[in-house]
Fold these 2 entries.
Entry 1:
Amino acid sequence: MAEPHELREKGLRLTPQRELVLSAVRSLGHATPEDVAERVRQTHPGINLSTVYRNLETLENVGLVQHTHLGHGGATYHAAEAKLHAHLTCERCGVLIEVPIEETSLLTQSLLNDYGFHTDLEHLAISGRCEDCFEKP
Amino acid sequence: MAEPHELREKGLRLTPQRELVLSAVRSLGHATPEDVAERVRQTHPGINLSTVYRNLETLENVGLVQHTHLGHGGATYHAAEAKLHAHLTCERCGVLIEVPIEETSLLTQSLLNDYGFHTDLEHLAISGRCEDCFEKP
DNA sequence: ACCTAATTGCGAAAGATTCGCACTTACTCA
DNA sequence: TGAGTAAGTGCGAATCTTTCGCAATTAGGT
Ligand SMILES: [Mn+2]
Ligand SMILES: [Mn+2]
Ligand SMILES: [Zn+2]
Ligand SMILES: [Zn+2]
């Protein structure tokens, strides 16, 4: 018996669209649904945008991808990896910096102690100004 | 000469709509444009939603209000006050906790040292689980 | 191969925000 | 004080993003 495909292991049907959505997320790093659709269309031109949305949601439900909000609006997706990271995003130029989660433990610890709040730094990025953008306002 | 109205001081024209939008933001605490519109309509039923959007933007430009993103989507507005605060928001129940900015200084300091990143905790909320929602998942 | 439920494509709907433009109004200053 | 002018408003339509309903297709179990 061959080892089952990772999608099948999660109890999902293996469709070309689903596989392509997952690999698009993985290769793009952090991508909007529209980005993902565009990438998938390179090998599967007919894919519908709603199929992309639905698969992103499905893949997130089984823990293969995650979404985060980098700026003012919508979601961007990235592969769920072993190493968690927080997102820093420059509100000027949009650059994205990934920070090992340990870097934030002092904050999360004190929010827990003082407010009983369990911080999830994956979901919403931390906004601010990158070094370059801070220097030349 | 009477002291000029605060809106006039900022170089803005004083219209009933604008004044009402500002006072709605102040009294509501944290509110969506729709919330603001609803409040304003209590005394000025005819106000148009696009007038609300435009005034929120204008008021933000002159520093009287600020917007922040509490959840997955749109903006909520609050009055720009002397005391800065970070926003904690529960991704389960939506409760909002305001945290004095000092509470976060260890994090912002280390992000600055390690990444040259100037954190703005006003713009994007910190996501997580409140105490209640963490206990009963 | 066959059956069934999951998945897809499609078009429409919904929700949020922005825009163009003609009309109104707050302020300037003669 | 009363034009004149530019800022502000209302209205409707346009955009943009995300979601839905439904009929047609297809993956996986038997
Ligand atoms: Mn924003
Ligand atoms: Mn989200
Ligand atoms: Zn930058
Ligand atoms: Zn909660």
Entry 2:
Amino acid sequence: MSETADLPLPVPDPASASARRVQSRTTSFDVAALAGVSQSAVSRAFTPGSSIAPAKRQRILEAARKLNYVPNSIASSLTTKRTNIVALILGNLANPFYVEVLRTFIDRLQAQGRQILTFTVENGADSDEAILRVLRYQVDGVVLTSAQLSTRMTSMCHDRGIPIVLFNRYIPGSDASGVRCDNAGGGRLMAEAFLAAGARSFAMIKGDPKGTTSQDRARGFTERLLEAGVARSAIREIEGASTYDGAFSAVLAAYRREPDRLPDAIFGINDIMAMGAMDALRQRMGLKIPQDVMIGGFDDIPESRRHPYQLTTVRQPVERMVDEALAILHLDEPALPIEPGIDRQVPGRLVWRGTIPAPALPGA
Amino acid sequence: MSETADLPLPVPDPASASARRVQSRTTSFDVAALAGVSQSAVSRAFTPGSSIAPAKRQRILEAARKLNYVPNSIASSLTTKRTNIVALILGNLANPFYVEVLRTFIDRLQAQGRQILTFTVENGADSDEAILRVLRYQVDGVVLTSAQLSTRMTSMCHDRGIPIVLFNRYIPGSDASGVRCDNAGGGRLMAEAFLAAGARSFAMIKGDPKGTTSQDRARGFTERLLEAGVARSAIREIEGASTYDGAFSAVLAAYRREPDRLPDAIFGINDIMAMGAMDALRQRMGLKIPQDVMIGGFDDIPESRRHPYQLTTVRQPVERMVDEALAILHLDEPALPIEPGIDRQVPGRLVWRGTIPAPALPGA
DNA sequence: GTGAAAGCGCTAACAT
DNA sequence: ATGTTAGCGCTTTCAC
């Protein structure tokens, strides 16, 4: 998507949609007429903090009620230049972690009286088209949890005063701000857990090769192992495509024929892949976890807590990350300048469950 | 939420947000000036199917590119009275089935060039406030998968020419249109599966008691069993709150102390509850499925296919249901009248997997 | 505190 | 095919 303005966005043809179904919406003029006041008074009645006599406001609200009047936010946005809409661009809703992220953003934004415009983008695809669509709607801010973003898009947003925040990814060499879990640090935590449990040979199931998230977790994990004296050859890498099925078949492909090459411990770069690996190992290869192989994950999705898995994993503090992301957007202070280049990292936390034998304190 | 116009929606205070971050957006006038044409020519250049010389259009698009111009949809909506936005009001994203529904709606609408405004509503709460918020944004249509809806809201939408469609629920005695799975029929399918497998005593784990979905499935299930001569006393009802955890603990509460009262078969009114029940039964009570108890679910979420579950369930044809819902909205033909009172039912299909011994054809 | 009036950025007749 | 003009429904000076 290198074109910009001239790209043929699939906008519904207004020619075929031009006919109106609406008879005549009731406007603030109608309310004004009924209440016997000016139209601007009606506007004030619906604007918190504007100067209007309480009695008059009551009268107006009363009239509005009678007419089932609802202010037209589209019209007011035209003058205020604020829509109270935030765009959320998501990848992979097949990963429950991102469903949780979505839920949290919706909760927060909804409570603030803001609306959410949701987009999804193919995993790994670029989000330029989505951004362009979002720009037309003059959103107050953009949250991007998916895929790639061209620097051109970043500056188009910023030029228009629309702040944009990356969630759990960053673009090296870009001035886009973002929040992410300390993925490398989390990878290290997992390495330490495995080491403490006595593992000496390892595999990691990696996700999207272009995703910094997967790379960072793998890097932290590997680095920590190397520091501990593990040989590079004792760390195998497997591609799991970030999905349950991908991990499931990748594990089978890697070990079914040669179960003797199985490592002591396998790190699923996210929980959903760790779960796929567990199922492949147990159901298809008849192995026991953690007796035959230890497994670790990353995210702490609700499913990883369930009985068939009881997955030891690195918990991402979603709520905190969401709050930090919203803070970067500073929707409440649009006058403040957009802050570029922020890269806020939030530490993850190891959650011990059943897939790695805990060395000392099982419950911690 | 009985008030209407005067309710204090948590709208961000414009007084504090009035300051502008935007310097001066580039408008169609700027593009017109650069291209040396009238402003309306610019508008036409961006409107598919409008009469403009191809050469001129190119020149305009070129100029737009240079200026990073993007048309302002908010402004155009003001005149066209179409926003190309559809509102999606969701309950429970904790149930993967609704995540799938969300994904499907997003896919479809995005491909049509439409935007999605997403809301969530507490399960069982009324959606009036969400509707009111949505109305302000003049959306082109509303999809409601959650909770209750007052008839007052239905008519407020319809009065404004905004079509609304209920997804997998209906409101008896209302003229709101909707699409749903044939839930009662699905319940019957499950009853038949259990009977065919030789079950003679039963339990159902029910969800939201106010939800028609849960009620209908339970009703169909029960009716079919009674028809087959099963005594009402051989059908137990358990409340599972529509969640994994709810079902998990409900099953434990019901049977842990008296495992001898266990029925031959348990019907989880949705998959997520069936999964909770399975885990409770197997991990906490040491039972084998289907040898000790058979289990059936409803929805066919991706998780139910996974190895630890292999759940026999009733599949809801999500894609088809979504398409039917969008057809009712007929977004492409806004001139056509809103169709009230449609109640489209789509049949479910039994998917045999491992939690009910298949009587004859295991793979079918 | 209140009303009149001038836009916000665009589309849609209406002429030409 | 193209430019001119009049709004769409609201907010916001600006007088009073």
